[in-house]
Write a structure and sequence with these properties.
233 residues; 2 domains; five-stranded antiparallel sheet; 11 strands; elongated; transmembrane; transmembrane helix; membrane
Length: 233
């Protein structure tokens, strides 16, 4: 299971903005609650320290303004982080499938698996029965607060198979199934039954990218919700 963390200069700017927002928030709270110490000598000659809270108009207005700025900065940062998480799709694989001449419903499929940075992990060619291909995998969708930290949905490619255009053939003909990366590996059992997952994982499910064997190259991406194919330019 790969769990990408969104990085880059924009992500760094958001983290710095969030840190500044938290610092301003703490500063505004301290400013509104801070008092001053009055020192005097009582009638018995003892030194007495008395702490008094200052709530002058200038202090209150300055503290409230700082509080508003801090909350606004944190809100803008969280919205920007959520948008970045929703639009930062991760490259997963590249697929090119071509129908073999003289062999109906049989395709030669090239599959290149990529890591979360787009670097090649493996490149293999398969003979797959069918008219279209399915690249399947598992998705672990994290809670929104984890996406705000830059943590993308986790994913793992588990299966490559074929599908026929004719529903009758799809019901009766043999299918090709290629297990990738060890398959499901008890993914659903471990995720659903593990007590640690509930605060962090919103959903765990299977998903597939599907496209015809038309000889065109496709780039496969994973979004926050699942896999999808996109014709390569």
């Amino acid at each position: 299971m790969m769990i990408p963390v969104i990085s880059g200069w924009f992500q760094l700017v958001l983290w710095l903005a969030a840190a500044v927002g938290v610092a301003l928030l703490l500063s505004s709270i301290v400013g509104l609650t801070r008092g001053h110490t009055v020192r005097f000598i009582d009638e018995h000659g003892r030194h007495v320290h008395l702490r008094r809270r200052q709530l002058g108009a200038k202090r209150v207005s300055g503290g409230v303004l700082l509080l508003i700025v801090a909350l606004a900065l944190l809100w803008v940062t969280s919205m920007a982080q959520s948008y970045l998480g929703l639009t930062a799709d991760i490259p997963v694989a590249q697929v090119r499938a071509t129908q073999i001449e003289g062999m109906p419903h049989m395709m030669s499929l090239e599959l290149t698996q990529l890591d979360s940075s787009g670097h090649e992990l493996s490149h293999k060619t398969y003979l797959v029965k069918g008219d279209r291909w399915l690249l399947q995998g598992n998705i672990m969708k994290f809670a929104p607060w984890m996406n705000m930290l830059g943590i993308h949905s986790g994913y793992k490619l588990t299966r490559l198979s074929g599908q026929y255009d004719d529903p009758n053939m799809d019901s009766n003909e043999k299918h090709t199934v290629v297990v990738l990366n060890g398959g499901d590996d008890d993914f659903f059992k471990r995720t659903y039954k593990a007590a640690w997952s509930s605060p962090f994982v919103d959903a765990a499910y299977g998903n597939a990218a599907i496209a015809p064997a038309d000889g065109l190259p496709y780039n496969i991406f994973v979004s926050q919700t699942g896999f999808y194919p996109k014709p390569a330019k």
